[in-house]
């Protein structure tokens, strides 16, 4: 509390960032980072010329990156929005499209920032529970007309809706924006980008943080109709006009252009995921089918908290959610083969 | 206009970014960028390890950079706030400290974003005209008790208040935050950091964009009392929790540590500035004393717009403000010696 603060500041709760340990000896399977480095092309593009050019302001529009993203999706630059990580894109989308009388709908188990943004921006919400198999059922979103935000695949469940079910959901919701958050889509799910031509209410948000191994660079983006992108640009230019810095623009573009590396990297993560699912299942974990770079697994006998703490003691970090429907599960990011072997070895030791 | 937009979006005006030409043959003296590249240490720190680490999220607190900034100013990390460029820091400070009943005071001729932020955040303001010599007079800020934002040196005038006058202003304004925006302070003015110990209401904002040649990296920061910094952190974590990316943190830290290069670089800019002032003065321009990397010069016969347009035609970009008190002036960024020679040659040709 301070006499200098606006009233606003007094009403805000200080935020405590998630655990980001700095000890390299840890096996870090708790924040869904990619275990592999970004494309070598990212290194190559950060050359003398790029560093010398840092004396100049960046392109406020991230024009080259925007054009490349548009081309990759068969869209025009006016269908692409770029932000400082997909959290930035999401926050701007909440302001641009969800701040309105009808409540925003999203699942009970989903990305934790959605309720946070609703609270911050004063957006009404209605929680739609996942079914017993932790799946989104499009029928649950058919009755009302408010906007929708839905990760596909969902987090922390890892489950994805196939395209025809997404299409059902969109066909029943044409009046307000439907935001599909595809942070994890590259690890085996189908992108809703294919549905953009038929659905001007659809906004598809993606990120370079997961499948492109660039969490440290903060680059996210959205695909949508020109009118949705124009709405986002208006809010961005008014509340947060900070462009991507030059190295972020250059690095993201280089990563985007290296399709072979991208394919290889996600194939490796998916192969390691399937190995991990098999090993966990063999040990009595109930693992949800995942199309992401993490798995949600019910711990044998439901003793998730105990296992979480024991793993942590030996330096293996996974994610535990102390909340209904999830407190018997652990969310485990897919690391390298060596990291996952270590996880399984520690589990064998601890659950012995 | 769109049925999908929030009411909010309809009320916002699309923003048109300033001219950022991409043709290298231009002589670009219109955006106050540094003509010299950043410290070679920035290049050195963007190595294989830094690029590999991009797969991991950045430190949300920019801890290493914060510690280095604190040490340089003889302060503690809790006295330092870091943002995505000083515009980000300013926007958060406006929300944290200026959104309150008493109007915010600032000069009639000053940084153009202040009135923009007031409008966006619904902040009442009162304009305090500069005196006839384009100087801030602390006496003009003594009568009321609202908060103040003041660049020192001021832009676009280039004039700076000496420390004892800043102290007078602070002594008369202890109830609300006084924000001193020191974007250009390193080019010859005195920093208000020396006054922080006595003034918990003082917030000093600086940037890596000008004197550190890192406009392309988007790094700004503020020094202040722990209670002001805590207020900024609260707003940032709530509305815009985007951390600096890893390369921005590493690059800024490397630049900060290269004190010799920094000193050399600003000495060169200041020497070129003095040469430019002398040459312009000799040609009948009335040049305000500048402690920045630009000069504000009244064009002979006041024909600033015509000269601006003529210079532009030959590829020399300077800044013209079509507004009262400034429409007979040009703001000219200080480039390399060669760039300033070209400017003078073109002026000689055009005003012949």
TrEMBL record, chains A, B:
InterPro entries: Aminotrans_II_pyridoxalP_BS (IPR001917), Aminotransferase_I/II_large (IPR004839), HisP_aminotrans (IPR005861), HistidinolP_aminotransfase (IPR050106), PyrdxlP-dep_Trfase (IPR015424), PyrdxlP-dep_Trfase_major (IPR015421), PyrdxlP-dep_Trfase_small (IPR015422). GO terms for molecular function: histidinol-phosphate transaminase activity; pyridoxal phosphate binding. Its cofactor is pyridoxal 5'-phosphate. The modification N6-(pyridoxal phosphate)lysine is found at residue 210. The keyword Magnesium does not apply. The keyword Transferase applies. Pathway: Amino-acid biosynthesis; L-histidine biosynthesis; L-histidine from 5-phospho-alpha-D-ribose 1-diphosphate: step 7/9. It holds the Pfam family Aminotran_1_2. Keywords: Amino-acid biosynthesis, Aminotransferase, Histidine biosynthesis, Pyridoxal phosphate, Transferase. GO terms for biological process: L-histidine biosynthetic process. Its EC number is 2.6.1.9. It catalyses: L-histidinol phosphate + 2-oxoglutarate = 3-(imidazol-4-yl)-2-oxopropyl phosphate + L-glutamate. Transmembrane segments: none annotated. PANTHER family: HISTIDINOL-PHOSPHATE AMINOTRANSFERASE, HISTIDINOL-PHOSPHATE AMINOTRANSFERASE 2. Belongs to the class-II pyridoxal-phosphate-dependent aminotransferase family. Histidinol-phosphate aminotransferase subfamily. This is Histidinol-phosphate aminotransferase. It comes from Marichromatium purpuratum 984. The gene is hisC.
